[in-house]
Amino acid sequence: MSTTTRATAATANGAGGAPEKSFFELQREILVSEIAQSLEHVLQNINKLNRSLEEVIAVGNEFSPVEALWSQFENVMAKDPEGEAEGGEQGVQEGEEEGEEHGK
């Protein structure tokens, strides 16, 4: 209330200066200042997160040749089981025949 009295007194005396700010205006300025600082802090943290994500992506991109090599290896191995299955069955039959000979 004292700020309103001072503002009224200043205008009544004919002082052409800006009237003093009310409690509401002072609190609003304080809150706006705090919000601006918080937003600046959020912006800094978002920038840090962005840099971290860029580093992770860069590291991931370094592994793309290794991934391509493993994919090629997987494709080669996927073709061989059909050929190995036939060869594997022959090996099992030969092993059984040898077992029969040793058992006699």
Automatic annotation (TrEMBL):
Annotated region described as Disordered, given as residue ranges: 1-20, 77-104
Identify the GO cellular component terms for this protein.
DASH complex; mitotic spindle; mitotic spindle pole body; spindle microtubule
List the Gene Ontology MF annotations in alphabetical order: microtubule plus-end binding
Q: Where is it mostly found?
A: nucleus
Does the keyword field hold Repeat? no
Quote the protein name from its UniProt record: DASH complex subunit DAD1
Q: Which organism is it from?
A: Clohesyomyces aquaticus
Q: Specify the taxonomic lineage.
A: Eukaryota, Fungi, Dikarya, Ascomycota, Pezizomycotina
Q: Which GO terms describe its biological process?
A: cell division
Q: List compositional bias (Low complexity) regions by residue number.
A: 1-13
The entry assigns this protein to a family as follows:
Belongs to the DASH complex DAD1 family.
The protein's matches in PANTHER family, at most eight in alphabetical order, are given as: DASH COMPLEX SUBUNIT DAD1
Query: What InterPro entries does its record include?
Result: DASH_Dad1
Tell me if Nucleus is a UniProt keyword of this record: yes
Q: Where is the composition biased (Acidic residues)?
A: 94-104
* Compartments, as annotated in UniProt: Chromosome, Centromere, Kinetochore; Cytoplasm, Cytoskeleton, Spindle; Nucleus
Recite the UniProt keywords alphabetically.
Cell cycle, Cell division, Centromere, Chromosome, Cytoplasm, Cytoskeleton, Kinetochore, Microtubule, Mitosis, Nucleus
